[in-house]
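ARCHIVE RECORD
Type: protein–small molecule complex
Small molecule: flavin-adenine dinucleotide
Source of inputs: curated submission
Record status: active
Notes field left blank by submitter.
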Amino acid sequence: MRTITRRQFIHRSSLLAAGTALAGCSDSSNSPGSAKHAIVIGSGFGGSVAALRLAEAGIPVTVLERGRHWQSESANLLAGSNGVAPDNTRPLSPVQGEPDPPRNTGLLETIVGETVSVQCGSCIGGGSLVYGGVLIQPRRESFNRVLPDISYDDMDNIYYPRVLRQIGAAPIPDDVLRSPTYESHRVFIADSERAGFEVFRPHTSFDWDIVRREINGEIAPQVSIGDYAISGNIPAKRSTDKNYLRAAVQSGRAEVRDLTEVEMIRELPTGYAVVCCRLTAAGDVLERYEMQCTHLFLAAGSMNSSKLLQKSQLAGELKGGNDRVGHGWGTNGDQLVANFTAVPVAGPQGGPACIASIDRARPDYPITSMHSPAPFPGQLQMLMSTPDELGRLDYDPVNDKTRILWSHDGATSSALARRDSFQRLLAASGGRELNLPAFLRDTIWHPLGGTVMGDACDNLGQLYGYRNLYVVDGSLLPGSAGAANPALTVAANAERIMAVLAPRL
Ligand SMILES: Cc1cc2nc3c(=O)[nH]c(=O)nc-3n(C[C@H](O)[C@H](O)[C@H](O)COP(=O)(O)OP(=O)(O)OC[C@H]3O[C@@H](n4cnc5c(N)ncnc54)[C@H](O)[C@@H]3O)c2cc1C
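STRUCTURE (tokenized, with ligand):
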């Protein structure tokens, strides 16, 4: 490995080459003359927020992202029904014990565990590109249960609205909900109300005008026929590359480097060095180099921020000895369920997931059901609760992999409350449960924790044992976002942290 200077390495990422929305990246972030320079590892929700707020505070920042910048292609996962996203040779249904698929930067990373497997975004925009677009704000009681030291009032009044504004999020409008392909949502509303659940329309990061144009036949249908998650960078989805990252780059103080994987973090007297691996889109290594910064922000997501920290500590490159890294990891109390309602919905189901309900039959375990358009004539819902048991992530240096140590929460009070809630929904719908295939049953999309606030770091994400080393992603939440999809809370928590940190740096 070699260390290269700025002059030797002016790696104009493909963002620039392609002249895309993020074009205009500035090299000033790596200028030797800058006293302060921040590096953000990862360009998902936490990383995008951090990049923009650092740039706005006048701090040159470089975002290092292992994945590619997807343009406007669609992987057509659902609409095409071919089951595998093109360019993503990491299969969607990996099997424990089978050899790893060939490396590819693709869209998603799949981490196979013994009790659960995890999928997370692996591209510019991270989870905001592959996700379902649901931006749910957790209710006060559930939030306080998982994050008792963070002011819900501040989140409610300042930080949740700040994220929704920046993304341009909105709930589904009435006219779209009335249109033919949204019948499954209307059936879910009726069933939930019959079951006594409180129905609501969460914000989504979708441009409803584009969806409306699809419905009116002005453009080809995509979101309105259910192709809304795990797609390429579809025009209707307001992923963070189109708002936070674009604004950061437009400020002239942020550079975003795609296909740049960070492999190691090293402590320096003046800050940190990160070992970067520059990849081709197929995942082949082009070169390795080091970059230095005064302030380092980890935003590689719950699975990878912990991995980088544990790996660097184990290698002796980070010497703070924080042994709480990896702890407090969980699955957000999630469970995916499917229901063949008495009157099955015919035809494609419009996306994104945009109707939810809360069941408060057990006040200690409110259950949120997020209705997700299904690629079959039934109902698909993500049930979310506050989990009773958390697990931990453990780095395995022999295989350079993260082990997920988590006992399946099949019999906890939280799991029983989910089952009970679903049974009441089934009874109200007159339907019957559909057994999901194992890869859907045993895979989760909302991993959280690993560097939990108040445990591995303080409430500003500052990692105990280190100076100027911060975590700003989903790793900070203790295995749960409070019976809600996590992205909005991950981003709002990053906003809360950056509102304090950025002016201080
Ligand atoms: C299919 C799917 C659907 C989902 N649907 C929803 C939904 O509708 N609503 C919701 O709230 N949540 C949803 N989620 C979860 C949501 O995407 C995550 O909670 C959220 O993205 C977490 O944000 P983050 O900033 O912690 O990490 P991420 O958004 O995952 O970002 C981490 C980034 O770091 C990059 N990275 C990782 N390691 C390295 C490295 N070593 N070097 C450089 N870069 C690195 C990754 O490629 C990624 O871009 C979904 C997730 C998936 C996979």
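CURATOR ANNOTATION: The CA atoms of residues 84 and 272 lie 39 Å apart.
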